[in-house]
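Sample entry was shown:

___
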Amino acid sequence: MTDGELLVFTDGGCSGNPGPGGWAYVIVSPENGNVLAEKWGAEANTTNNRMELSAVIAALDLLLADPRSSGRKVTVYTDSQYVQKGISTWILSWKRNGWRTAAKEPVKNKELWQRLDELSARLPMEWRWVKGHAGHEFNERCDRMTQEAIASLR
């Protein structure tokens, strides 16, 4: 890894919802556009939202395991408004309301949200939404890897 900021691109999806799912991340150096790390994973029976969350969690797990990432700003780009708004806005209310939504329902994927909250608190973070399937190089790369992950289950 290099010094300075790290860019993390993530994606997740399913074939059917629920159904076989995949997730992927790509970690990029903004200085030169080099890919520093990438990975995908798959689950046989899951949901789109679980896969979107799993991608970010896996990327942050990797960064936090590497001492060279300590204290570095991380900007996460996701095409999931569920993830971006969830971690930036909604989670504050969920925690205040005992992990209940505004409708007093239990928060779905609570264990993943709690893990993401714990991980994101350990690094300086910025969350950005990027439109999916709009030609962004690294978002498209994550999408292709997600589809490979799903195909690996067939």
About this structure: The chain has four helices and five strands. The chain has a mean pLDDT of 94. Residues 48-65 form the longest helix (18 residues).
